Amino acid sequence: MKYFNAFWLYKFLFIIIVVSTSACGAMAQDSLINYDEGKIRPYTLPDPLQLPDGKRISTRQEWMQKQRPEMLQLFADNVYGTFPAKPKELHFAVSAIDSSAFGGKAIRKQISVFFTKASEEPFMEILMYLPGSAKAPVPVLTGLNFYGNQTISNDPGINLSKQWVRNDKEKHIENNHATEASRGTDAGKWPVEEIIKHGYALATAYYGDLEPDFPDGWKTGVRSTMKSTTGIDVDKWGAIGAWAWGLSRIMDYMETDPAVNAKQVVITGHSRLGKAALWAAANDTRFAIVVSNNSGEGGAALSRRWFGETIKKINTSFPHWFVATYKQYNDNPQLLPVDQHILLSLMAPRPLYIASAEDDKWADPRGEFLGAKNAEPVYALFGEKGLGVNEMPAVNHPVGETIKYHIRTGKHDITLYDWEQYIDFADKHFKK
Ligand code: GTR
Q1: pLDDT tens for residues 11-34?
Q2: How far is the CA of 428 from the centre of ligand 1 (A)?
Q3: Closest by alpha carbon to 43, among 392, 431, 385, 370?
Q4: Which numbered atom of ligand 1 lies nearest the CA of 275?
Q5: What percent of the chain is predicted at pLDDT more than 70?
Q6: Among residues 112, 119, 314, 321, which one has the fewest Cβ atoms lying within 10 Å of its Cβ?
Q7: What pLDDT is recorded for position 111?
């Protein structure tokens, strides 16, 4: 009996130890995520105007010729990887044009972008709507979508994506494939008629055409399929790099379409696709205006702030998004030679809009605001005005000029309110 008791006692103690250590482990993990401003340790941001040799720059020429290329390279080496050039054999096939979309208000075009000589995979499909009434070439809003082109509208003429798509019951994505029922399931994020009404074209493509979003997605994405063409190994760039590269290929198409004004293309992106939009626009200055919606960690939010998602967390949840070097900063963001305000500075002097959502604490709204704020010195070199305030504005009160910022009420999302601000912003800067 004694032996029996001792056995159960040991077993009981063993269970307690196992349970408590795993609980502690979970607590240690959780405690890495901070939502308390008071707990943020002091940090020093790298100065965008200080050259790596310590010298400070003071002119726009020095920025463009010396500092900008250095900073872009630091982001390539430490965060997003190489950004391959336009493939020589890139070509397009406009597969369908229909001028009866939205009751004749819009012209729908679907364009296959072939990345190699062969007119087959690998390719990306652009869905485009143009205002039906436009006489002159129109400005464009462009951005990638999350679940396939057919999800952005109920328009039955949109080709159904055939690629791998993340399963989602509500969006009717089953067995990792889009179904007919998935049409229009993301239409709330894409106010097509509103965009057309304001005289803009909309161009989008499914991000999974470039790389399916899971750790092994590179095996079928452009990092693999384009390896022999670009000469760039798969580990020299990440999934965000692949998506960003696709945005530049959309831009390539815009330059060939006489119905649009390729000098007035606004690049947009929500969340992880906001990160991709920023990286694309940093590399590709053909994008005239840059919009980042709730892009958070690895997007517009400062990494040195310990609030919401962290470098460690993002690298753990999404090991395929960035290059391996980025993981070296998991526990030491202060050692990163750049921070996200410098990524935003790479947009200068182009108009830049950064947006947050009040309930989107994970993306660190204040960190996004400070990212924008700390890009101001570079914009000032060009005589361009930034936010014009030092503190975060009230919700739904956009601030700024060439750099603009808002925090809207509500959750992590891209809403009609957000699009309305971006259209106003583009109208103002394109002097429409
Ligand atoms: C989250 C991720 C964020 C953001 C978001 C999204 O899970 O942690 O960095 O990118 O996904 O893309 O919706």
Answers
A1: 444 444 433 333 333 334 445 899
A2: 30
A3: 370
A4: 10
A5: 93
A6: 119
A7: 97
